[in-house]
Amino acid sequence: MHSNEPGMTAQDMRMTRARWRLAEERLYPLALSNPEAYQRAVQRVGRVLAELRTSCLSIEDLLGVDGKPEESLSADAMEQPDDFIHARTVLEAACALRLVELAAQGASARE
Q: What is the DSSP string of the chain?
C-alpha cells in the first residue's frame, strides 16, 4: 500500500501500519489482567471504528484522521476512556481494523 499523502513514503506507511497494529496488540493483555477495562476498550474501539467507517473511505482518509483526529472524530471518540487505555491507543486500534476492512474491499473490487 502506498499513500498519496505529501511526504509519505512506503517506509512511513509501513511504520504507520505497524504503529496501528501495536496499539491493537496492547489491548489484548487487558483481557487477562483487567477484563472490565478490556471490555470498555473494545466498546470504545467499536464506536471509533463506526465513525471511521463513515468518514474514511480510503487509506488517505484514514491517514488524515490519524494525523488530526480532533478535526474528524466526535468528542466522544476523542475522550480519554480510563486510566488503563489512552484515547490514542483506541484510535490507532480502530485504524488498524479499518485498514483491514479497506484492504478487503480493495481485494473484492479487484476480483
A: ----STT--HHHHHHHHHHHHHHHHHHTTHHHH-HHHHHHHHHHHHHHHHHHHHH-SSHHHHHHHHH-HHHHS-HHHHS---SSS-HHHHHHHHHHHHHHHHHHHHHHHH-
